[in-house]
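Appendix B. One record, verbatim.
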Amino acid sequence: MRILRTLLFAAACFACAATAAVAVPLGTGFTYQGRLEQGGSPFAGTAHFRFSLWDASAGGTQVGTSQIAANVVVAGGDFTVQLNSAGQFGATAFDGDGRWLQIEVCTDASCTTPTLLSPRQPVTSAPYALKSVETQKLTNVVGGHAVDIQPGTATNIPGMYAGKVPGDLLLGSMVEDGYTHGYLSLGYPNGDRKFSIGRASSTDFNSATFLPQFTVVPRTGNVGIGTTAPEFPLSFASQLGNKISLYTPNSGGRYGFGIQPDLLQMFSETSGSDIAFGYGTSDAFTERMRIKGNGNVGIGTSAPLAKLEVRGNIRMGSTGTEFAAGGVENLRILRGALNGAGTGTIQYGAGFTIATEGNFIRKITFNTPFLAPPAVTATSNDCTGCFVRMCEILEVTSSYVRVAEYNRHDGSYSGGPFNFIAIGPR
C-alpha cells in the first residue's frame, strides 16, 4: 500500500455561494487531500488513518496530539479529511517554522494496528497559510522591521476613509507635503472611541483581562497614562507618588514631579540642585527666579544668600502702595513711643530699652547696635502742651541716643511723652 499526498490550507468549503455577505473568521482546521493505492492500483472503500504533526522530516519532536480519522471514504484512490479542527496540534502549531505530517493507515477504527507510511509529508503553504505565516513573523522578528508599510502614492485626500465605519482601526502610511508619515486612526471624530496599549491582568491567560496603561481618545486628542478617561491633553491616574521623571542622573536621583495629599511636588536631584524659572530654551535660558536646594529664594539673582534675596525694588501691601526701594544701603528702622511718668515707660515699639538721666533726659539703648550712628528724629507727644514742647537730640551713637524735651517759650526742660524713629545701616 502506498499513498500520494497533496496538502491544501484552505477554508472548510471549496465552493461557497457568491451571495455570501457576512465574513466568518477562519478556524484552526485545514483540509488534507490525498491518494491511497494498494498493489499499484487506486484503493476504493473505507479506510482508517492516524495523523500526527512533527517539527522535523525524521525524528524530532511531535507537535500537539495525534488525530484519528476513521471510516474515511476513498473513491478511485482519492480521499479528503479535516485536520486540526479542534486544535489537536496546539494553538502555536504553525508558528512559521517547518512542519511535517506523519500518516499511518490502520486496520481498525481505534488504530491499534497501524502501518506507518514514509516519508513524512512537508506542510506547505496555500494563500491563507501564507497570510498566517506573515502574521506570525510580526511576533517572531529577530532584528529588522516587524512591520514595514510603504505609502506608495497614497496621499491625505478626501475619501480616504471610504467604506470604513466609526469603529474601524486603520494602520497605514501616506505622503503629505512631500513627507512620508505613518498613521493610526479610528476613523471618525464623533463618540468616545479609544485606542489603548496595555497588558494582561495575570499570568493565567485563560482568565486574564486587558489592563489599559496608555489610552488615546481621538475625538478630544486627550492622552491618558494609567487612566482610560483623560480629561486633559495629558492625564495621569489618580494615584499618589511620582508622576513625571524628566531626567535621571547617574547618581540615581530624579528631576521631576510628584503628588502627595494636598501637595504638588517639584523635585531635583540633591540639596545642591536648584530650580529656576525664566524664559527662552534650555540652552538659551534667561533666568528670572531661582529656588536653591538649601531653601533660599533669589529674585534677580541665581545665588541668594538669605531665605529671600531680591535684586530690585519691592512693592507690598494689598494695593502695592508700600514700596521698598532697592538701594546701596542695607538699612534698619527702629521706632517707639515713651511716656513721661516717672522714669518713663515704653508705650509701643521693641528692640530698645530706656533709662532716665536726671529728671528730663531719656537714654534709649539699642538692643542691637547699628553699623554706624543712625539718623534719629523725636517728636513731643504731650497733648496738653503740643504747641510749646519740643524734643532735642542731645547725643547719637551706634549704640544709643539721648533725648530731652523742653518748653520752647522759656527753654525749661521737662520730662514728657515723645515718639522717636532711628534709621541706620545694619
